[in-house]
């Protein structure tokens, strides 16, 4: 039986802490149920402001993205098209992120700025909060390293948006398996 919800793990790399001031630099997204079904996009910065430490963490070069990255509108339209392709009729795409408020804020802002609407709607599943619910742990125990120690995923995060989206998908699938039956 097909679920009426399609969980999509999304990770982003950015040039700073908030959208509208800083740029979305890369997007990785994959299906939680099938991480090989994925998309990876690198974007041209849509502004000059950046936090050098944030950019260094990404491993991306702003000058290279300026010349080789996709214009933000093209990138968001490609992401929207991919979501349409992987989502069956009658399914709702559900944004899943590890620290979803951060990643979702950039995706939401860019979708609204460049396409007019966010296909994910105005909600997301935050894996940290979900993990608290499944395990009964405290907020300070929701670091990905602590989740990894408990759930034993095969993959690991590395600040590549697609690799991190796949890592998150694996972690979330393990959380779903550990949680109460639905």
TrEMBL record:
Iron-sulfur in keyword set: no
Pfam families linked to this entry: RNase_T
User: Is Nuclease one of the keywords?
Assistant: yes
User: What's one GO BP annotation on this UniProt entry?
Assistant: DNA metabolic process
Q: Which residues form a coiled coil?
A: none
Give GO terms: molecular function aspect only.
exonuclease activity; nucleic acid binding
- Boundaries of every Exonuclease domain copy: 6-181
**Any idea which UniProt keywords this protein has?**
Exonuclease, Hydrolase, Nuclease
Question: Can you say what this protein is called?
Answer: Exonuclease domain-containing protein
What's the source species for this entry? Pseudomonas panipatensis
């Amino acid at each position: 039986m097909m679920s009426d919800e399609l969980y999509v793990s999304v990770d982003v790399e950015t040039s700073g802490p908030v959208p509208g001031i800083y740029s979305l630099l890369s997007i990785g997204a994959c299906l939680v149920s099938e991480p090989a079904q994925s998309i990876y996009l690198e974007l041209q910065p849509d502004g000059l402001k950046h936090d050098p430490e944030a950019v260094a963490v990404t491993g991306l070069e702003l000058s290279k993205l300026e010349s080789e990255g996709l214009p933000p509108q093209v990138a968001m339209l490609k992401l929207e098209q991919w979501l349409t392709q992987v989502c069956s009729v009658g399914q709702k795409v559900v944004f899943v992120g590890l620290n979803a408020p951060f990643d979702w804020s950039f995706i939401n802002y860019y979708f609204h700025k460049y396409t007019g609407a966010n296909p994910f709607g105005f909600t997301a599943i935050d894996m940290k909060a979900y993990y608290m619910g499944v395990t009964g742990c405290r907020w300070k125990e929701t670091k990905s390293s602590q989740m990894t120690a408990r759930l034993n995923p095969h993959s690991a995060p590395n600040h590549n948006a697609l690799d991190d989206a796949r890592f998150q998908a694996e972690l979330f699938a393990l959380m779903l398996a550990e949680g109460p039956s639905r």
